[in-house]
Amino acid sequence: MQTDSNFTFVLFGRTGDLSMRKILPALFEAHRAGMLANDGKILAVARHASYRDEYLAWVNEHVKRYVSKNGMDEAAWSSFLDRIEFVNIDLSNPDDFVHLREAIKDLLGIRVSYLATGPSLFVPICRALASVGLNENARIVLEKPLGYDLKSSNAINDAVGEIFAEEQIYRIDYYLGKEPVQNLLVLRFGNALFEPLWRREWVESTQIMIAEELGVEARGDFYDNTGALRDMVQNHLLQLLSIVAMAPPHSMDSDSVRDEKLRALKPIDPRDIGKVAVRGQYHSGVIRGNSVPAYATEPGVKPDSSTETFVALKVEIENWRWAGVPFFLRTGKRLADRVAEIVVNFRAVPHSALGASALRAGANRLVIRLQPNETIRLYCLAKQPGEGMNLASVHLDLAFDQFFHEGQMEAYQRLLLDVINGRLALFVRRNEQEAAWRWVEPILNEWKVSTRPPKPYAAGTWGPAASSAMLAQHGTCWLEED
Question: How far apart are CA 406 and CA 427, in angstroms?
Fold first, then answer.
């Protein structure tokens, strides 16, 4: 399905890692699938003097490799490059934005400005756009991190909100564009089988995990001033939690969905942080047979750094639906595998005539895997063939790449099409972002003044033992093999 109208997509941060790996490949896949209006244009903004031919050469060299996994269509690639225009602008000089206005004045449709830059440039770019009238008939896309804490986030939102109306602002969280997250909404609100079970009477606990094998790579300076709580929990994990725990919206329009998210997240008492929050930092170890260094020896990291590379949290929702049900969040770098998943553990049967297996927590569970392979699995018990009543765990499997042979989209492709078409449901509203920062701030403050260092864990493991101990107190454990 083609986008509803023509557009001009203005890309700030044209040669950044995000543009190279995600944004331009996503736009190409939409183009190849015939989902972009024929006259839609992509305008790359350069901070340094250059020419269109030079930029297209860079795109050919650096971007093409990220789209070839689906097979390269040279004709589609050539016609995609025809969409790309180019303009030189000094982003620190608002007067230069006159050149941008002149470059797009005759282009048709809605204007989308994607700020794939550092957050320090968000406000100057928005003000410069407004100074030449480019905040009208326009949408602005803001990448994370949006601020360093609640105060700085509010400062950016206040400044951008003076220039763009809330319905023009698209705060992107790519996890919300993943297919299984979309299907979680359908699973919950489109199937009478699951919605009656999605509550405290039937759910024993829930786990949400985003685990990475990679370390900080070349981002040591950035990461050492950020940490896992800001980098992953404040945005991705809390957004996934909100989808799992939200009350049913009355429709799927943007405001109905976003009205229900993060509504009943219970604040953490600073006195309880030691009981419900675990922070860790990886030491040297082995991943897939390769030795990897400790975080403290990574380039750009301070040797005495107390920055967390691992976070595990116990979270509660304050409403009738979820009262007393623990939600466990976990994320970390240099863990045993690269995986992101949501695990809903249903309660055991109240009495079993079939032995202890049927009373085990998690015998019935729903696993929604977001990466690396996107699947939804429903686990239940079945009798093993043969003599006796011996039980085994079996599962029903929806593997999207096998069931739906066409139409699969990467998260960024879906989200960029939503921006162009003006669909806000999968983007973060300001009050959601404020609620997330307000919730994590007591933890940030406690860890900032704490004299206790992060708990060590060897690279290639699943994190500190304290993380597993926290779940053991509630009679459950992390699902670490599937």
Answer: 25
Helix (H, G, I), strand (E, B) or coil at 100: helix
The single residue of 48, 62, 236, 405 carrying the catalytic annotation is 236
- Is 351 known to be catalytic? no
Tell me the C-alpha distance between 72 and 78, whole Å: 11
Q: Which of 119, 140, 171 is at the close of a domain?
A: 171
Helix (H) and strand (E) counts in the chain: 17, 17
Same domain, 249 and 333: yes
| Type and span of the H or E element at 101 | helix 97-104
Long-range contacts of 62-65 (CB under 8 A, 24+ apart): 62/15, 62/20, 63/19, 63/20, 63/24, 63/25, 63/28
Question: pTM of the entire structure?
Answer: 0.90
The helix (run of H) or strand (run of E) holding residue 53 is: helix 52-62
Provide the token pair at 66.
Answer: 């990220």
Q: What is the pLDDT of residue 482?
A: 46
Query: How far is it, in rounded angstroms, from Cα 380 to Cα 128?
Result: 57
Between β-strands 365-371 and 339-346, what pairing exists: parallel, antiparallel or unpaired? Answer: antiparallel
Domain boundary among 110, 143, 171: 171
> Regarding beta strands 285-287 and 290-292, do their DSSP bridges make them parallel or antiparallel, or are they unpaired?
antiparallel
Kindly report the CATH number assigned to the domain that includes residue 348. 3.30.360.10
pLDDT tens digits, one per residue of 105-150: 888 789 999 999 888 899 999 999 999 999 998 999 998 878 889 9
273 Cβ contact list (under 8 Å, min separation 6)? 442, 443, 446
CA angle 363/364/370 to nearest 5° reads 110
Nearest-angstrom CA–CA distance, 13 and 113: 11
Task: Please choose, from the candidates 230, 221, 222, 220, the residue with its C-alpha nearest in 3D space to the C-alpha of residue 146.
Answer: 230
- Buried-state track 252-262, b at ≥16 Cβ within 10 A, e below 16: eebeebbbbbb
Calculate mean pLDDT across residues 291-317.
95
Q: Where are the alpha helices (DSSP H) in 201-332?
A: 220-224, 227-228, 238-245, 254-259, 273-276
Structural domain that includes position 264: 176-410+434-472
Residue 30 has pLDDT above 80, yes or no: yes
Q: Are 228 and 331 in contact (CB under 8 A)?
A: yes
Concatenating the DSSP letter of every residue in 163-229 gives TS-GGGEEE--GGGGSHHHHHHHHHHHS-TTTGGGSSTTTEEEEEEEEE-S---TT-HHHHHTTHHI
> Are 167 and 193 in the same domain?
no
Q: Average pLDDT of 468-478?
A: 92
Whether the Cβ atoms of residue 218 and residue 277 lie closer than 8 Å to each other: no
- Contact by Cβ (8 Å): 2, 421: no
